[in-house]
From TrEMBL:
CDD domains: MR_like. Residues 132-237 form the Mandelate racemase/muconate lactonizing enzyme C-terminal domain. InterPro entries: DgoD-like, Enolase-like_C_sf, Enolase-like_N, Enolase_C-like, Mandelate_racemase_C, Mandelate_racemase_N_dom. The keyword Lyase applies. It holds the Pfam family MR_MLE_N. It comes from Actinoallomurus bryophytorum. It comes from the Bacteria. One of its GO terms (molecular function) is lyase activity. This is Galactonate dehydratase. Gene3D superfamilies: Enolase-like C-terminal domain, Enolase-like, N-terminal domain. Transmembrane segments: none annotated. Keywords: Lyase.
Length: 390
């Protein structure tokens, strides 16, 4: 079997464009991968066009190790977010083909299951006014839907520091959410790399009474020693990693013992196998893995297969029950979250099939997502200024 061509299909929403890559073969089997790029969709598609000519066409989709190695190192320059995302889409699609060819769900080809179901946490649910009352009501809807975990960023436009009034407002939002969801539901606090170590440490102390299950990206991702300082000064678990695009770059994070949970994004770190290798390294450092996932059903499916067979997996992020739920129709087949858990996929490959006609119903957008803009959390096209790219 040989790869004959790639095709791309962009599904647009006001705050994110989802790029789907189909890998076509000479035996008629087609696989699909997906990545969400913020502001770099053109760059990703451009990279894929060159990689298709230079590396992909003529490759055996079963030889994913060789293909990933050639795509990563065969262009001499250091692979960053764009290249690693392109590699991920192609690798993901190749695994989809392999599963279909063998008639097996992917997790069975990666070592088999270590769990019967996969815990999910909701994100994208707090598109409401930034008041305790509104957040309380929105959080109730999450637990009423059966979720046993949710994540949110309560910090508005906070950057490096947070003044007293905004600090108290942010803490009040966390308090309101904890009151709504009760003591048993996981409350995950997102910090989006906003703060200096001193501010992050102060906030960790104020949030500790509400028992968050982790603090995510308390500091900007470039300086891991700053993150280690935060970790040293709080008992709360620290999570990070979505903006690290090469598993080798996690080495320093492990050496510093700066995080308790890593959050690689399968679609930005080179694919399923690269993430699995990273998870194995994390396991040797007693670190859990909770993959970042802002994608649609294809990327979510890839995450589920990884979760099924990874011993140190913790929990899976999921947006599309609350943000842009209609896009679930572009790739039917993904299990729904029931009582807070995904069931394992059971159909061959990734278990989802891209519907190209459905993709066309969501034209590409000039998507904008500025985490430091007022009311960014609303993901409102009127506020972001996003329009159709056509």
């Amino acid at each position: 079997m040989r790869i004959t061509r790639l095709s791309t299909h962009v599904v647009g929403t006001p705050w994110r464009n989802l790029t789907h890559v189909q890998v076509h073969t000479d035996e008629g089997l087609t696989g699909v991968g997906e990545a969400r790029m913020l502001g770099h969709t053109d760059a990703l598609i451009g990279y894929l066009a060159e990689a298709e000519r230079n590396h992909v066409i003529g490759s055996d989709p079963f030889d994913t190790e060789d293909l990933v190695h050639r795509m990563k190192y065969g262009d001499y320059g250091r692979a960053g977010e764009i290249a690693m995302s392109g590699i991920a889409c192609v690798e993901m699609a190749c695994w989809d083909i392999v599963g279909k060819a063998l008639g097996q769900p992917l997790w069975r080809l990666l070592g088999g299951k270590v769990r019967e179901r996969i815990k999910a946490y909701a994100n994208g649910w707090y598109t409401v006014e930034r008041t305790p009352e509104a957040f309380h009501t929105a959080a109730l809807k999450v637990v009423e839907r059966g979720y046993q975990a949710l994540k949110f960023d309560p910090f508005g436009t906070g950057t490096m520091e947070l003044d007293h009034a905004e600090t108290m407002r942010s803490v009040s939002l966390v308090e309101a959410v904890r009151d709504a969801i009760g003591p048993e539901t996981d409350l995950l606090v997102e910090m989006h790399g906003r703060f200096s170590p001193a501010t992050a440490i102060r906030l960790a102390g104020l949030l500790a009474p509400f028992e968050p299950s982790w603090l995510e990206e308390p500091c900007p991702p470039e300086n891991l020693k700053a993150l280690a300082k935060v970790s040293t000064h709080t008992d709360l678990p620290i999570a990070t990693g979505e903006r690290i695009h090469d598993r080798i770059e996690f080495r320093e994070l492990f050496e510093l013992q700066a995080a308790d949970i890593i959050q690689p994004d399968i679609s930005h770190i080179g694919g399923i196998t690269e993430t699995r290798k990273l998870a194995a390294t994390a396991e040797t450092h007693y670190v859990m893995i909770a993959p970042h996932n802002v994608g649609g059903p294809v990327l979510t499916a890839a995450n589920l297969h990884l979760a099924a067979c990874t011993p140190n997996f913790k929990i899976q992020e999921h947006f599309n029950d609350f943000a842009d739920s209609a896009i679930k129709g572009v790739a039917p087949g993904l299990p729904e979250v029931v009582d807070g858990y995904f069931a394992l996929p059971t159909t061959p490959g990734l278990g989802v099939e891209l519907d190209v006609e459905a993709c066309a119903e969501f034209p590409r957008q000039r998507a904008k997502f500025d985490l430091f803009a007022e009311d960014w959390h609303l993901r409102d096209p009127e506020r972001t200024g996003a329009t159709s790219a056509e």
